[in-house]
Amino acid sequence: MMSSMTDQRLPTEPYWQAGPPPSGPPPAEPRSPDSRPLMWVAAIVLLAVVFIAGLAVGQSGALGGPGTAQVPAATPQVTPASPVASPAAPAASPAPAASPGPTAAGSPDASPDALPTTPPLVTQPPGPTATQPPGAPADFDLFWEAFEVIRQNFVGRDQLDDRDLTHGAIRGLVESLGDTGHTIFLTPEALQRERESLQGTIVGVGALLGERDGRPLIVSVISGGPASRAGLRSGDLLQTVDGESVETLPPEEIASRVRGEAGSTVVITVLRPQTNETLEFSIVREEIRFPAADWTMIPGTRIAILRLIQFSEGAGEELRAARDAATAAGAEAFVLDMRSNPGGFVHEAVRTASLFLPAGETVYIRELADGQRIPVTTEEGFDPTDLPMAVLIDLGTASSAEIVSGALQSAGRGPLIGETTFGTGTVLLTYELSDGSAVRLAVERWLTPDGELIFERGISPTEEVILSADERALEPDEVEALDPGAVGTIEDAQLRRAIELLGGFGP
Questions:
Q1: What are 182-238's pLDDT values in tens digits?
Q2: Is residue 197 part of a domain?
Q3: Which residues of 43-81 are buried (b: 16+ CB within 10 A; e: fewer)?
Q4: Alpha-carbon dihedral angle through residues 266, 269, 273, 277, given to the nearest 10 degrees
Q5: Is residue 332 assigned to a domain?
Q6: Which residue range is the domain that position 322 belongs to?
């Protein structure tokens, strides 16, 4: 089974949850006829080469050794990452879909005098020869030889688990591709968590994990969730979870440590680069369920905030309903707030752009492995508005949210205010393997309508506005509660500037 999403990471919390799960079973997902052959070809070519390294990765869990990285998150090259409550996406159709990029303590240092300087070389008789699959390279027997050497001679062989060894080898294979934080291996358990995060409710803290320069970080926090209320911010670098270092753990491992029973507490320590502070947060886990979109009128103005939280299934329709309700209430301009939006399905990005751009307008460009470029355009039937608008973005804006930001910017639809976005831009297909695990493989990347690459660069704002240490992004319900006379002094400089540019503080 394959699913297509733009750069998605394993959520620890549902990072693109669309509220109550849809009624009835999810739609059947087409199965690519060549998904298995593709995996065999990729795996067989490299598996023998990386098997030993993969075993090290596979067994590093107990010691906290290095693993794959991913935050958002998500996915800056932050790989927007693994949601702390999450996001991970269920397998979808092979067509590209859309948007946020981790690890724990390293193994203990060994005394240089404790081990021989040069370990003796042991000649091992070859193990039994396995039947090679069609198309296997001539030296594929080397993989089985190494596998048997380990199973027969490793000092702790009685505790070895063949599934762990195999998953470790696949993980090493995937890591050898160098697409850190994007192309990833998912265990059956991790894949199931991703599916749950898109279809129902997850218990966690409401944050998306990712990686930048090999370090795990918070790519984005779910608005109104426990992490947001506690004070975690996009860009915080993860150090410990419940007192144990996670600086070298893969995102899925960090996610599993952060998640837990509703009502229980997890203690997370982070380094905040902006202030160089080490901060500790004690967060009570909750059942996370959020709508994709929300809105409110800004008191004393004719400007409506349209808050788009994630690109879960149906997000475009939810945003259309919010836009139309705001228009009916008298809105004459919009602030589209996509801050800390980790992305989701690419078709929802196209539908969202279709609400503000004419039919047939380019939303993004698919760049295939052979260099071919294919424009993807807005859809008909979305009754696009031409009312003035401004867009809010930040480091946590990733994937599908970057597609929409880039499309609106390229079309000159309105100013982008805030900070450079996350910088995700690969389209990932999920190839499910026979044991329920999966390889999420980058198969193409996307560009803005102007042909600009977003991967590792992000979308730059029209006007950079950085929130101070005392400010934070306000949610629609918080803005709605403001006194009209206080709107001009709200402690959200990005929103304040957007209102000003749209004439909200005029006579």
A1: 788 888 888 877 776 555 467 889 887 877 777 888 877 777 789 988 999 877 999
A2: no
A3: bbebbbbbbebbbbbbbbeeebbbbbbbbbbbbbbbbbb
A4: 130
A5: yes
A6: 293-426+442-501
